[in-house]
Design goal:
P3H, Pro_4_hyd_alph_FE2OG_OXY, binds 2-oxoglutaric acid, alpha+beta, globular, Jelly Rolls, Oxoglu/Fe-dep_dioxygenase_dom, binds fe (ii) ion, seven-stranded antiparallel beta sheet, Prolyl 3-hydroxylase 1 isoform X3, about 15% strand, about 600 residues
Length: about 600
């Protein structure tokens, strides 16, 4: 069988999680209007997401293999999360249509969102017609065009499946027969898989609106093209920190929402660069570009290049970024937390997932994660610096992941308790920052009067002194009224308690212990996850190797048996021929020794 369409191969929540991963990591450049995140992008940028991705990949691969009747232990050559944006399309082709793609056996595309709801257009079509063949099969030559079809098609199929000839020959596209022939047109829905042999003709109509997401696999039998071998090498190699931020075009949704800053805001922070809060990553890149231009003395040059180029050029320049506690972001975070149905990291501006993604969840309005508005005061966290937006996002995200447990790293829904604890911690940080502002320990951004930073001890002392003064004033007022009542004693105790708490918080914030700990545990966690993924993949690889060795053994045996039969046939043929040979040898003049006597009569 050359092609199959299956539904429900991946559950809706996994589809949503993969969409989230694609939105976070996909980069442009694969094809026009298409952004992609390969399994390697995931491994290097967010290894925690490998677990769900590899699990989904295996489910898709197994389903495709079974449906195509190709249970040969196929290896995966390419795994990608692909996002097709308006304008993306592909004409009639097959997936092994280049010399360097010869190793490809089959393709499996599992859609993650719904045509007609999340996006428009993007219909997948099987080329089950003469019209689509256009000589790909090689049997029709130049005559294979519109209407006529190739000679291969006319005579009942070229055998490669490109023109659907195999269906006519076999009567059914399904090996087992009796099952329905897959449709020629496939409309994407979350979890719907379209699988086909690498020589099967197909095309995709243009996406006209929205974003079409798919988990795409290319399958091979050639171990040299096995992506797992390379993946293992990446996972067991040295940790690579993402060096350069990705071009801004990759992160901007059509409505201008900047995904990177959304993710920062989601963790309750904003990014600041040289004392300014960033409202978009593009702003950062433009500023960096302007700086670079000024440094090079060529002020006007930037005007002559397009914004995209400007961004690409500045993207490679690491810029020091700082974190700022962002009360507005914190509010948005709380709102998200309080939503009845956690929205699986659906961000503002993204198409509503519920209903359309087949998940059946209630459609909650997306939280507005607008990046920091100008003049909103935010507290700069001293001592932490990142060299790119991406780096800051990843560090924060892993913090969120660690504190929020399942939030972004696994397929489970974030649990309310983990949100609560994260929320509390964020609040503590924000509260600490507010108190520090009083002591002048943090710089204030967004307002005209930036506080001056002072030492940790003096900040703590200042706040402590203020609390003591407050307590003393309260106590004094009570004393003036007469005797110290139980109530005022309680008040004093409470104030002392508050004072202690404040001092602790200030210590934690000023000493950056919280963030240092976060960083340390983030690194530790990364190392552990890396080990775990490595083990898992090694195990899986072992299993796959055993399976495919068994398959290969089986095939070898079959081939040997074939050879043996050939040999036996030959021998049989020899035996069958022998009498004739002997007989004809007797007729040959030179060999007729026995007849010499008679011949002598002449
Ligand atoms: O996304 C799809 O539906 C198929 C894409 C395709 O044909 C390809 O990438 O070669
Ligand atoms: Fe294709």
């Amino acid at each position: 069988m050359q092609r199959a369409v299956l539904t429900g191969v991946l559950p809706p929540d996994i589809c949503r999680e993969l969409i989230w991963a694609a939105r976070s990591l996909a980069v442009v450049g694969y094809r026009d209007c298409v952004a992609s995140a390969t399994i390697f992008d995931v491994a290097s940028a967010a290894p925690a997401l490998l677990m769900p991705l590899v699990a989904a990949r295996e489910a898709v691969r197994a389903a495709a293999e079974a449906a195509l009747g190709l249970e040969l232990g196929l290896l995966v050559e390419f795994t990608g999360l692909l996002c097709w944006r308006p304008g993306a399309s592909i004409g009639w082709h097959h997936d092994a249509n280049r010399p360097y793609l010869r190793q490809r056996c089959a393709s499996a595309v599992c859609y993650l969102n719904a045509a007609g709801a999340d996006f428009q257009g993007g219909t997948f079509l099987f080329g089950d017609s003469h019209e689509s063949c256009r000589g790909w099969c090689g049997s029709g030559g130049g005559g294979a065009g519109r209407g006529g079809g190739c000679s291969g098609c006319r005579s009942g199929g070229c055998g490669k499946g490109c023109c659907g000839g195999s269906s006519r020959r076999g009567g059914s596209l399904f090996a087992s027969g009796g099952e329905p022939v897959p449709p020629l047109e496939v409309h994407a829905a979350p979890g719907t898989l379209v699988a086909y042999g690498a020589h099967v003709q197909h095309r995709v109509r243009p996406v006209t609106a929205g974003e079409r997401y798919a988990l795409t696999l290319w399958l091979t039998e050639d171990p040299q093209h096995d992506e797992d071998a390379r993946l293992l090498a990446v996972l067991t190699g040295p940790v690579e920190r993402p060096a350069a931020p990705l071009p801004a075009s990759m992160w901007l949704l059509p409505d201008g929402t900047d995904l990177r800053l959304c993710r920062v805001a989601m963790a309750g922070f904003a990014l600041a660069w040289r004392g300014r809060l960033l409202r978009s990553a593009a702003e950062l890149e433009d500023a960096a570009e302007a700086d670079a231009g000024a440094a090079a003395g060529g002020g006007g040059a930037a005007n002559s290049v397009g914004a995209g180029q400007k961004r690409a050029a500045s993207a490679v320049q690491p810029v020091p970024l700082q974190l700022a506690v962002q009360p507005a972001a914190l509010r948005a975070w709380r709102e998200w937390q309080a939503a009845p149905e956690p929205r699986c990291w659906e961000l503002g501006g993204a198409p509503a997932a519920a209903g359309t993604a087949g998940g059946g969840g209630t459609a909650a309005a997306p939280v507005d994660f607008q990046p920091a508005a100008p003049n909103v005061p935010a507290e700069l966290v001293a001592g932490l610096e990142f060299s790119s937006v991406q780096e800051a996002v990843l560090a924060l995200e892993h913090w969120v992941w660690r504190h929020g447990g399942a939030a972004s790293g696994t397929r489970e829904r974030p649990s309310p308790t983990s949100h609560e604890s994260l929320g509390r911690e964020m609040e503590r940080l924000a509260a600490g920052a507010a108190h520090k502002r009083k002591g002048g320990a943090l710089e204030q951004l967004g307002g005209a009067s930036g506080g001056r930073r002072s030492g940790h001890a003096s900040a703590a002392e200042a706040t402590a002194a203020a609390a003591v003064a407050e307590a003393a004033a309260a106590a004094g007022a009570e004393a003036q009224q007469g005797e110290l009542t139980d109530r005022s004693e309680m008040h004093l105790l409470n104030l002392r308690e508050t004072q202690r708490e404040l001092t602790n918080q200030i210590d934690a914030i000023t000493g950056l212990q919280v963030l240092d700990n976060v960083r340390a545990s983030f690194l530790e966690r990364m190392a552990r996850v890396k080990g775990e993924v490595g083990d898992l993949l090694a195990q899986t690889e072992g299993m796959l190797r055993t399976e495919s060795t068994a398959t290969l053994d089986f095939r070898k045996r079959a081939a040997n048996a074939g050879r043996l039969i050939d040999i036996l046939n030959l021998r049989t043929a020899d035996v069958e021929q022998r009498p004739e040979t002997l007989f004809s040898a007797a007729q040959e003049p030179g060999a007729a020794d026995e007849g010499e006597g008679e011949g002598g009569d002449e």
